[in-house]
Specification:
This protein is α/β, with parallel strands linked by helices. Helix content is about 40%, strand content about 20%. It has helices at about 15-20, 75-80, 85-105, 135-150, 180-190, 210-220, 225, 240-250, 275-280, 290-300, 315-335, and strands at about 1-5, 25-30, 50, 65-70, 110-115, 120-125, 160-165, 165-170, 195, 200-205, 230-235, 240, 260-265, 270. It has a 7-stranded parallel β-sheet, sandwiched between helices. It has a 3-stranded mixed β-sheet with strand order 8-10-12. A two-stranded parallel ribbon has the order 6-14. Helix 1 links the parallel strand 1 and strand 2. It is globular, with a radius of gyration of 20 Å. Residues about 335-338 have low confidence and may be disordered.
């Protein structure tokens, strides 16, 4: 079976591709490679690589593809606000384009990487039936992508949306702009954590390997179980209030609990039920927050990852690319003037 993974060189995608290879799947990776190709350099000879954009790739690449995992997106809430128009173009219209072209070209299964961020702020526990309340461009684009792709589902085209909890853990394309990873980095560098106010806000969490397994479980499930369905991906046990999360991570690393409040206030707060994915697919995470914190910290201590690599904080790297683009544009203009 041949699987196309858009955003395959990303934080989740680079892990997902390896799990697919382990299970014997033929993998095609489509990515813009804004963060380079280091995340897949050791498996380049095992996969087909297409450097392209979901907004304009040639539909011919979908020929003989059996399933699509659509992960390509401008990732996370802060990054989505850098250019809201581009975020909508890619995260919403680009992914609906992928789904429509997949259906047209005979792909049998399409799985959308969505986010629990669509819940925004809720006092109760959110299920898949809870009305979304997206507060950011990133979340709004994901909600629209869900609607646009799920509407395409029929007996010949299986569509599933996975609303992932906030992901954490060590990956081949590391990210330090995710809450668990960021706290571990801060403890390594400054021996304290930085906590967003008010600290009581809820956030569900899931390890990068576990959420990758969820995609594969959908792929291998009977269509009647997953077609047209939305699943929250995570576990009830890994719903955390941010202040308590900081304490647990510090405890896992056997460090004193030193913290500093951040000036910004986080208006997002959502506690999520993961009963459906457990009931329908028997999905159970294999990793805990403590596991993820320890693996990241050990990798930092051992020099396996660089805490100061600018690529690992998404919004800062995007800003760098934008600035470089403007710089190169000016160089070109000035060169012509000369």
């Amino acid at each position: 079976m041949r699987i196309l993974v858009t955003g395959g060189a990303g934080y989740i995608g680079s892990m997902l591709i390896r799990l697919l290879l382990e299970r014997g799947y033929d993998v095609v990776c489509l990515d813009r490679f804004f963060f380079g190709m280091d995340s897949i350099k050791d498996i380049i000879d095992q996969i087909k690589i297409i450097k392209d954009d979901i907004r304009w790739f040639d539909p011919k690449i979908l020929k003989n593809i059996d399933a699509v995992f659509d992960l390509a997106a401008l990732s996370n809430d802060p990054a989505g606000e850098l250019d809201p128009k581009k975020t909508m173009e890619i995260n919403y219209m680009g992914r609906v384009r992928v789904a429509k072209l997949s259906k047209k070209n005979g792909v049998k299964k399409y799985v959308l990487a969505s986010t629990c961020s669509v819940y925004g702020q809720h006092k109760g526990i959110c299920t898949e039936e809870t009305k979304p309340n997206p507060l950011t461009t990133y979340a709004k684009a994901s909600m629209l992508a869900e609607k646009g792709t799920l509407a395409l589902a029929d007996r010949n085209f299986c569509v599933t949306a996975l609303r992932q909890a906030t992901v954490y853990g060590l990956s081949y394309r590391m990210r330090f702009d995710l809450v668990v990873n960021a706290m571990v980095r801060a403890l390594y560098k400054y021996e304290k954590v930085f906590i967003g106010r008010p600290g009581t806000q809820w956030r569900p969490l899931v390890h990068v390997k576990d959420t990758s397994r969820a995609f594969i479980m959908v792929l291998e499930a009977d269509d009647e179980l997953v077609n047209g369905q939305i699943f929250n991906v995570g576990s009830n046990e890994q719903n955390y209030q941010i202040f308590n999360l900081a304490k647990e991570i510090t405890e896992a690393l056997n460090m004193p609990f030193n913290y500093e409040w951040m000036e910004t206030v986080d208006t997002r707060s959502y506690r999520v039920s993961f009963d459906k994915i457990k009931r329908v697919l028997n999905f159970k995470p294999e990793y805990t927050v403590k596991d993820g914190a320890r693996e990241i910290y050990n990798a930092l201590v051992n020099g396996e990852i660089n805490p100061d690599d600018p690529r690992w904080i998404t919004v800062k790297w995007y800003k760098h690319l934008i600035e470089m683009r403007e710089f190169l544009k000016q160089v070109e203009i000035n060169g012509r003037l000369l």
